[in-house]
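Q: I'm teaching a short session on how sequence maps to structure, and I want students to see two examples side by side rather than one. Could you give me a first protein with its sequence written out and its structure tokens following it? Keep the formatting plain so it prints cleanly on a handout.
A: Of course. Example one:
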Amino acid sequence: MNPKAVKILLNVFSFYTDKGFQPKGSKDFLFAKAEGLMFDNIQMTHDEGIAWLMKERETVSKQKVTDLFMASLSTRRLDFRSGLSAFAIAQYFPDHKLDNKDDWGNYCRICGDHSYELHQVRELNLYNYKRFSAGGYESMHNSPDALAFYLDQTNRLTHSKPEKSDIVVWNDIKSILLKSRQYKSANDIEKAIGQIKAFKSNKEERRALLETLSLCGIIETAEHKGYFNEFIPQIKRERRPSGASPNQWCYPILWWKSEDYINEAALDYWLGEY
């Protein structure tokens, strides 16, 4: 992985103007593009994104995404960490046509894709930015092409196995999860994980890690499930009512409280072998 190209990607917003993404003539963009880290925007409909996702889903394995996730913990290879959440969402993702009737306007009621005739630009660099800046799935993008991109990039990675140093970090994280009843909120869990000396991370990375575990169904509630056993349609991903205290976590961890504990069956399914 070329450090210069990563640095250029992490500065992606410098390529934006009031007219949107404008990389034309930039040597930095062309360099990062040649290194496979930045991309031209693409035009893709909802249904084309579904087809891409179905294709990528067939070629990536649970073993690879969990191994890469674990191998990221001591190395801080955030791009290794990002495939697990996308895989969890994609495993039961339904093959469907755009459904944006009734009061859903330009959003698909099933997957949440923001797609209509004049809005087909897919900004792959924003997806990749999240992979390398935090190691999580870009929850503000609920589109099938985003999931397909994450899986495509995971497919391109060499299958790396976790080392003993990764397992040491994971055991410390798991210990905190198993004691989660003593924490009032996800914010408290994030702070506790921040005290693990061997886990080099910042707040954004720790939040992305916990959101990944939540999307896997490990940190969920009885009423607001993750994607462990089924796909959760957009219309069932309930947000907090307006007027509630600010909460920037993604679904479903934003609903989590200490009494919800964790889903140990999901923990064992995804990461039990480590």
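Q: Perfect. Now a second example for contrast.
A: Example two:
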Amino acid sequence: MKIININQLNFQEVVRQTLEELKEDGLVIFPSDTVYGLLCDATNEMAVKKLIAFKNRPAGKPISVFTNFQQINQLVKIDKDQLLTLKQIIPGPFTLILPSKHKVSKLLESETGTLGVRIPMYQYIEVLVKKFNKSITATSANLAGHSPHYSIETLVNDLTEKQKELIDLVVDAGNLPRNKPSTVVDLSKSDIKILRQGDLNFSNNSKTYLSKTSEETKNIAKKIFQDVETGHAPSVQRKPLIFIIEGEMGVGKTVFVKGIGEQLGINNIISPTFVIYYEYGIKISNIKYQISKMIHIDLYNIENKEEFKHLGLEKYLKPGMKVLDAGSGTAILGIAAAKLGAESVIAFDIDEWCYDNGIENTQLNNVVDKVDIRKCELEEIEENDFDLVIANIQKNILLELAEGFKSRIKQTGILILSGLLEMDREAINFKFSSA
């Protein structure tokens, strides 16, 4: 049993060695976005039997596989609408149960012919799956019924000599964050079921609160924050906490934010409607979430050119540029580019509501002749000579579209990515530098 370390400096070489083992019926212990996993070629019957022997897993109990968006349609039956919905949450810590197309070992499928698929947000697994160009098993590296492992030391100490003989390679990434195993979601039938709850809670429980005064609204916000704070696992408490607030002007959105702010020791919240966003430092430490700042964003109503300067586009935008606004939402960034001198703008989104709002906003801002609003996917944009691409897209989708952006921007063009978190910098830099 060979053990090697993996890090940013040597991961390409480690991936190469891992691929060699997988191609030779090998069994590899490898890190993931949740726990240490047990990897083998999911299409290789001999390798899968070795994995089942290692885990001492009961016959007929299914095992999920790692894949990516390029391969998922080859493995399972999934329609376009389902895939569109899933792209909002994956890559991430989810196992999705779907009807199998029987392209992997049947030992991995359930008795009803379904297969669990995983598209993780984890650089090393992403590269491995892409280079192997086949699905790889995605089960945790522990005996059936035993707890998963977050370090190689505890994992190896838990193995018998017979198990160690079955392992061809161990890849050590150090102590992993103590995330729960993935949330398992059964999408094989019309009724969606959560078969295993991971860090993210998908309960459909909803509550209604009624408020008659500003003070009541703030108290409701504080209570909701307290409920969220105490209701999640420690691993979730290290992740971004996002509140999405919708409503017409005057209904109390900023008042609600003030309630959350007061819970965090912030007493000077003001509406950012005309400056896009405000950042506030956290002044108290007796909260469970590891929060260092609060960001309050408001894109409700932007109409005049001066307001767009807060977006920072004028630093990169030169008169006469051709601009692509990807994931345009209400077309605010595309309109901003037009107001600041762009010759032409294409703003696209897949959402019907965003399309309608984009049309309306271009009319309100008198830029209909400059901003072309489209309801489509990136692959439907035939133009490929953009001087500037602005992408305000959810991180997981952004990473998937990296190559598409590169093929549509000039060699001397500029790509601006917005609405992202500092914690995602490494994954985004890696994806776009390799696109």
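Q: What should students look for in example two?
A: Point them to this: Residues 233-237 have pLDDT under 50 and may be disordered. Also worth mentioning: The two ends are 35 Å apart (CA to CA).
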